[in-house]
Amino acid sequence: MKCTLYHADTRKTLDDLLADAERQAGAWKDPKPSPGAPKPVTPLERFTAVKDLYMAIDRPFGNLMYSLIRATGAQTVVEFGTSFGISTIFLAAAVRDNGAGKVLTTEFIPEKVETAKKNLTKAGLVDLIDFRIGDALQTLKDPMPGPVDFVFLDGEKSMYLDVLKALEPQMKPGCLIAADNTDQDGTKTFLEYIREPDNGYMTSPLLTLGGTKPESGHEISVRIIAVVPPLGPVDLFDHP
Ligand SMILES: C[S@@+](CC[C@H](N)C(=O)[O-])C[C@H]1O[C@@H](n2cnc3c(N)ncnc32)[C@H](O)[C@@H]1O
């Protein structure tokens, strides 16, 4: 088998989950809050109010992340926002096919983690996952299995920048960062930061087509801290 995504158990689990997520996205209506009920304010309250929703990536973006992880041989992959584990399956399949490594994924709703564990077990990939339950800014403080090669940002949008900065000291030069939902307002401070050349990234906006939405916005960035000092000016005539 050349690609774990085509392995029977992985493929069936992913196909079933993506189909379920697509059905749910088509049928979902924003519920009217009952009169007098407190409005969810914090990210945890807001995500808990919709804890049955997948809010998952679509297949084209999953396939792209699989390809990026394979092309770079990434071994330590960090995911912000597990939900029910659809994106985690793409990340873990790529790590499996690279031959070694771990996916560290963080989610603050414990019931979602339980479902994600079951889904990753069905997909035959659970042995590659380090599930961290709690707020990402806390759970990411615990030691990583190695220097970070690939980061996927898909949790609370207004926290992308804080999560990125928390991971920066642990990123390898050449670490890739894939961010989802960059068409949402909450990602603005993250985008401003990562697009500022002085902050050490080369970055590209990207749209993928298909899935639950006609198109989805992402940002793909690479940490460009040089491995060797950049070349200085060369004097071509400096010969004896
Ligand atoms: C868009 S969904 C993730 C979808 C998932 N990546 C996928 O494609 O299948 C975002 C998830 O991030 C979780 N989340 C949001 N903010 C978080 C935080 N600060 N720490 C941990 N988890 C968080 C939410 O509970 C939610 O399940």
Description:
With 240 residues, this protein is an alpha/beta fold. The chain has a single domain (4-23, 42-223), classed as 3-Layer(aba) Sandwich (Rossmann fold). 36% of the residues lie in helices and 21% in strands. The protein contains eight helices and seven strands. The chain has helices at residues 8-27, 43-49, 59-72, 86-98, 110-122, 136-139, 160-167, 188-194; strands at residues 76-80, 102-107, 129-133, 148-153, 171-180, 201-209, 215-223. A seven-stranded mixed beta sheet has the order 3-2-1-4-5-7-6, sandwiched between helices. It is globular, with a radius of gyration of 19 Å. The model has no long low-confidence stretch (mean pLDDT 93). Bound molecules: S-adenosylmethionine. S-adenosylmethionine is lined by residues 43, 47, 55-57, 81, 83, 86-87, 106-109, 112, 135-136, 154-156, 159.
Low-confidence segments, ≥5 residues, pLDDT <50?
none
Can you identify the CATH class? Alpha Beta
Provide the β-strand percentage band.
15-25%
Q: Which radius of gyration do the C-alpha atoms yield?
A: 19 Å
Question: Taking strands numbered 1, 2, ... along the chain, how are they ordered across the largest sheet?
Answer: 3-2-1-4-5-7-6
Global mean pLDDT: 93
Structural class estimated from helices and strands:
alpha/beta
Present the secondary structure layout.
Layout: H1 8-27, H2 43-49, H3 59-72, E1 76-80, H4 86-98, E2 102-107, H5 110-122, E3 129-133, H6 136-139, E4 148-153, H7 160-167, E5 171-180, H8 188-194, E6 201-209, E7 215-223
Parallel strand pairs: 1-2, 1-4, 2-3, 4-5
Antiparallel strand pairs: 5-7, 6-7
Helix pairs in contact: 3-4, 7-8
The chain binds S-adenosylmethionine.
